[in-house]
């Protein structure tokens, strides 16, 4: 019986030692410290040169992000009419490469609604998820490469803008590819 008390006392002593080293706020052993300790995202916490309401510095004046060319026409009917006269700024020497790249981008972004051939019968139209996508061959539309670029840049009716998905060159490539589809449909 005395032996049981010794074992119980020894067990309680070991438990007391283990509990005394325990801290609820910080685990004793950290096998993956990144799971417990925050990574230093507080970059602008104690920076004196920024105003109180500003988290990061604004880009320098008159700077343009890479791959982006400012679009000179406004998102108005008048801007679209001005864009109608614009020609593609892409290099005519690599026209085949531009059309190939435009075809791939068209398949990714446009064919789901406009159809693979531009006839306005994409998968979403066939499933009646969206309605009223006209064919590129429709003579009433009178689309040009400039108006196509304007529509991709700003969107039109239920079609939203694709300016955040494609850079300027890619939007021009798709516009040229749409004009090729229009020509093929009108034959």
Describe the fold and architecture.
It is a single chain. The protein has 187 residues and is mainly α. The chain folds into 2 domains: 2-36; 77-186, Cytochrome c-like domain (Cytochrome Bc1 Complex, Chain D, domain 2). The chain has 8 helices and no strands. It has helices at 2-20, 33-36, 77-84, 95-109, 111-114, 123-126, 145-154, 168-186. Helix 4 packs across helix 8. The protein is elongated, with a radius of gyration of 32 Å. It starts with a helix and ends with a helix. The model has no long low-confidence stretch (mean pLDDT 81).
Q: What is the topological layout?
A:
Elements: H1 2-20, H2 33-36, H3 77-84, H4 95-109, H5 111-114, H6 123-126, H7 145-154, H8 168-186
Helix pairs in contact: 3-7, 4-8, 7-8
Q: How many beta-strand elements?
A: 0
Name the CATH homologous superfamily of the largest domain. Answer: Cytochrome c-like domain
Q: What is the C-alpha radius of gyration, as a whole number of Å?
A: 32 Å
Name the CATH architecture of the largest domain.
Orthogonal Bundle
CATH-derived topology of the largest domain = Cytochrome Bc1 Complex, Chain D, domain 2
What CATH first level of the largest domain would be assigned? Mainly Alpha
Strand content: under 5%
């Amino acid at each position: 019986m005395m032996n049981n008390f010794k074992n119980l006392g020894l067990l309680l002593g070991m438990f007391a030692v283990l509990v005394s080293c325990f801290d609820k706020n910080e685990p004793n052993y950290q096998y993956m410290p990144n799971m417990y300790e925050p990574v230093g995202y507080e970059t602008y916490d104690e920076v004196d040169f920024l105003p109180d309401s500003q988290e990061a510095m604004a880009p320098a004046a008159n700077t343009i992000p890479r791959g982006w060319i400012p679009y000179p026409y406004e998102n108005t009917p008048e801007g679209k009419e001005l864009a109608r006269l614009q020609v593609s700024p892409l290099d005519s020497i690599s026209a085949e490469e531009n059309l190939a790249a435009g075809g791939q981008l068209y398949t990714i972004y446009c064919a789901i609604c406009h159809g693979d051939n531009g006839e306005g019968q994409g998968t979403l139209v066939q499933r009646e998820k969206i309605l009223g996508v006209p064919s590129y061959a429709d003579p009433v539309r009178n689309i040009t490469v400039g108006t196509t670029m304007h529509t991709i840049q700003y969107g039109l009716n239920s079609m939203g803008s694709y300016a955040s998905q494609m850079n300027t060159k890619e939007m021009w490539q798709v516009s040229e590819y749409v004009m090729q589809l229009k020509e093929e449909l009108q034959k």
